[in-house]
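Progress narrative, work stream C.
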Amino acid sequence: MATIDESSSAKRWLPLEANPEVMNQFLWGLGLAPDEAECNDVFGLDDELLEMVPKPVLAVLFLYPITKKSEEERIEQDKEIKEKVHSDKVYFMKQTVGNACGTIGLLHAIGNITSEIKLSEGSFLDKFFKTTADMTPMERGRYLENDTQIEVAHSAAVTAGETPASEDVNTHFICLACVNGELYELDGRKAGPISHGDSSPASLLKDAAKVIKKIIEKNPDTLNFNVIAISKRT
């Protein structure tokens, strides 16, 4: 979360805690109806533990440590991303605020499942996605950066966490979502969305778990990982 887009402002927030309860209150306060969807912990990536996650899963958030190796990989990936074309159906935004990756991960999740959920008319989320629909990823990032309402809501969510927040962190949230039959990794610090191949709403959680396992395998010396699923309430 500490490193952001190189052309960004020096603006920094305190990081959002990987806490489903905090995230639920945050999203519900911004306009996601509580009876539409909720965040839940994913306690492990084995099939038995994935089965415990409420279904259907609409998106997955993953918190992982930023390391020298992960940074080198990001730079290499950015070269490839710039040469690829992704579906214009994918909602993607750049991160221009330090430590805003938790909020951006949630916005990536909601932005790619608006056909599956209802947002309260006139709410922050409703207006945000309507206003930014035709913007570029960087324009969306700048719009978020200059929005006081989301900054205040983010700050309130930070204080609702169970652990004291510090600006000096080395972890980062990304979102994994299924769009048009493809699994996309959405990371505001990268040049664009990354496709991880075919997926479906029914297989999203298992497909995301495979991607997450590969990232974890690259960081065998740390246990600082969290997985949160956003599930449709039925």
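Work stream C, second folded protein:
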Amino acid sequence: MAQVQATMDTQFHVLAVDDSIIDRKLIERLLKTSSYQVTAVDSGSKALEYLGLLSEENEGRGEVGVNLIITDYSMPEMTGYDLLRKIKGSTYLKDIPVIIMSSENVPSRINRCLEEGAEEFFLKPVQQSDVNRIKPHLMREKVLSPNSLKRKSMVECISPEKTRKCNNNNNLCDIFLHNLCE
């Protein structure tokens, strides 16, 4: 069974972005220990290049094969927040889950990232328990993608302040909320 689980996990590819070599190597090791395929880069611009977002004519066309992006918040030239906004602003990449990590526990920064579409905000140093929280985001992506449901719609349905919006506009959210409450 462990062999089957390891085989299933290797299909998930994580792009790790951190300017600190120590933090980058730590997150890379934690992810690989959990059987993820990892590509690590040291800047937001290298992440955009890898994703095909540096030039507008390339704008993420083609399959990048990345299932999740985990990025440091504080980096020179481009912050993790800036990277998040570029990814969420891309037609082709906006549904890829993004996790922000930072050594600074600044509530306004955390809220801003989550409001912009980050799935999680990890405080550094990242630990194995944090990495264990990644899998549900990957599994949700696999479940939602074939049905053409957008992640944001599901998040809006779960969020109490947005429930009314979903109840009025989305029958799938009604069904989801009904099943969630049972």
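The CA atoms of residues 102 and 123 lie 5 Å apart. No further action is required on this item.
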